[in-house]
Amino acid sequence: MSIRPRLAWIAAAALAAALAWAPAAPAAEILTKVPYYLALHPAKGEARGTVLLLHGGGWQGDLGRAVDRMQAPTIKLLRGWGFDVATLGYRSGEESLEDAVDAFDELRGRFPERPICVFGFSAGAQLGLIAAARRGEAVACVVDLLGPPDLEEMGNRRRSRRGEDLARMAFGGAVRRLSPIRNAKEITAPVLIGAAECDAYVAPADHERFAKRLREAGGDATLVLIEPGRDVDLEHCKVDGDSYDEFMDQAREFMTEAAARWTPPPAAAEPAAEEEGGGAGLWIGLAGVLAGVALAVWAWRR
After folding, report:
1. What residues does each domain of the chain span?
2. End-to-end CA distance of the chain
3. What pLDDT digit, counting tens, does each position of 80-90 carry?
4. Is the pTM of this model over 0.85?
5. CA quadruple 215, 239, 231, 67: dihedral sign
6. 256-283, pLDDT tens digit by residue?
7. Which of 75, 181, 225, 227 is the most buried (most CB within 10 A)?
């Protein structure tokens, strides 16, 4: 069996298992579903901002509405923190990044004065970081949970090579250009990074190197280590429940403070208005030129 059918089968099995236990997500407003699915789950109480929630899974998407059930626990948590939650069912492969950026633009267009953070798991964290690099100050913050900093070189973990293969399947020769660590200078939003020593794909040292690169570029980056355990399955490994809860508590504080600090970036300057009568002057000048040409032709023919 080739790697692509095998991955598709694994993804389908994981999704079926998730849907079997996950509680139904709250009613949501469907913002758009062409060519991807985007829904908005309202905050409990007054919203302090919006979160674009991006799922993991090796850049395998096309889940549509199923992302709401798959991410129901996280949706419930973020809504309880006072954030509207936008869930994105992005397409697979290279189109996943296009959809992530387009979804952010859709939210920014709907809520021009509201802080928008991005919360991504694994591959979704990479998508969120590159979207933040492309949208600069329009992004209020990024929570990066186990996202690979370097798609080209994930290290020597048990599944590092598999992660690199998945990245190449998704982005081809663009893996270097689309690695978050190569875009550190463009990521101006504060970033909270969650890493785990048990991560089968990326070592915490690589996350620390990414955090250092962000700080050297003048950014705000915080790295939190989540302890291994048997309580919470983060796909890359299982972690301790209390340690994971502590990370999520830090994420709540981080996002709340970032949302409170964020201000809309200055609007692009409008082109200078033409002085009154400028258009008429142009036409008068043109008429004069044409008249001069006509006079010269008349004189020559005589």
Report:
1. 3-261, 270-302
2. 89
3. 999 999 999 99
4. no
5. positive
6. 999 999 999 887 544 444 444 444 443 4
7. 75
